[in-house]
Amino acid sequence: MKVGVIGAGSIGLLFASYISKIFEVTIYTRTEDQAYQINENGILLRKKAIIKQSSVKALPISSWKGIEDFTIVTVKQYQLSTVLEQIKHLSKRPKNLLFLQNGMGHLKLLEEIKGINLFVGTVEHGALKENAYTVSHNGEGATNVAIFRGDFSCLQNFATKVPADFPIHVQEDYYLMLRNKLIVNAVINPLTSIFQVKNGELIQNKYFFRVLTSLFGEISFILNLDHPEEHLRQVMGICKKTAENRSSMLKDIEANRLTEVDAILGFILEEADKQEKQAPLLEIVYYCIKGKEPAKGGEL
Amino acid sequence: MKVGVIGAGSIGLLFASYISKIFEVTIYTRTEDQAYQINENGILLRKKAIIKQSSVKALPISSWKGIEDFTIVTVKQYQLSTVLEQIKHLSKRPKNLLFLQNGMGHLKLLEEIKGINLFVGTVEHGALKENAYTVSHNGEGATNVAIFRGDFSCLQNFATKVPADFPIHVQEDYYLMLRNKLIVNAVINPLTSIFQVKNGELIQNKYFFRVLTSLFGEISFILNLDHPEEHLRQVMGICKKTAENRSSMLKDIEANRLTEVDAILGFILEEADKQEKQAPLLEIVYYCIKGKEPAKGGEL
Q1: In the β-sheet with B50-54, what is the strand arrangement from edge to edge?
Q2: What is this structure's pTM?
Q3: B48 domain residue, yes or no
């Protein structure tokens, strides 16, 4: 089976490296330079002190023809529209696409894609891109995937064949799967970014914990959670388990990059709007992050 | 007229330095060491490139007898209870006390003081304590004062005699005077601390400005402002005028010191509570600041 990986950030490099043991992988990069560097060096995967080299073919995204049997889209949600635009202009439609974006904002974009088997997934690995062709796998986890639309078989086939140290679990309900991850991301990512603290401090600092529970309460109300206490327990459990980690959004803010706040909080704010529910905390948290993003929101 | 100045932080040093041209001033310090250093060096006042030396007598606060005709209390609100406790044990009550704390949380403490003329004031000077006996006057402003209780004449006398380059304006209504300053402080101080930006960015960054207007809306509702638009205009005007300044609360957070958040937001939250009004944004903002204060709020 030929597999395409679109996007060569930390998650793209991580997936390409692991699955290239099993599949024939082509990774598609934003720049020609990165493709060149990957072709020259392979992908280096660092896990603790061990470095493994994988030989993976790399091409710039402009050369993507969608010919692989299975394609994993790893770009950020805010880069997704460019990829989707490109699909429309391919002479041959790709057969199977797996989308690994955070949040749920991308679902409405996927609605517009016709005649392709579409899958979505959530990634629980910790990964850090060290340079154009090196990724550090610093948090072992799993990938959850589920069908969004179309035929199931290729996803099942893919998930069964991946290496045992890079597990992919097939879930029944894509909506619940994405929503559960969204809740965690919507609480931990923005608050760690505003407070500029590691994940653990959200539950260790009693004042920050007050803010966490208030924000969670609003999210729970907007998403109409049936068992909010279970979700809150999950959020707290992840804060505890990843106590020493800096969230991806905090890293983005610190590195003066765009964040995924629109994909994460933007989606929940839209839900609030549809249901005509007030969301004062979510709004203030959203604007705090937007204000810290590089464009600085422009002048008044 | 003999004048006592209690507290030798930036405002205490600034006042002692300016008014010592006219009055016989004793400044009371928290530590014996600071009193020693001021007695050795005088108070150095830096204003742009010019440094002026004033000869001011300094004593540790434990030696305060309350014998001066007029005493200015410049300690932070959270240090005030110590001073008030000391008043109770003086053999002779001081005659006239002027309190220069931020916020309005100290008013209920002043209610308990009997038989003394009490005045309150707000300071609009920018001042930075450089060391134990040096203060930089980096923002020219004025001091507003008003009677809280008792006889007016000593305050009037004091305000008339101060040097022209250090004006003190007597206001009619202490409540309106403090409240107007409180509104400005309640918006600018916490938000600049959370966003970690200079005052100007609150109105230059459109997202931060959204948060500012939401927070202001809550404050306006809780304080039952008659003309909120005028207060909002004042807040924006100060952001613009002091665009390059870092607020005192931001400096406190950066220096890992306690902030005046209880004096400022605590008071408004109590008002909300009394009136049974919801204050979700004020609460989240309050906890954000509390969480950033040095004690870290302790474990859960």
Answers
A1: B50-54, B43-47, B134-139, B126-131
A2: 0.81
A3: yes
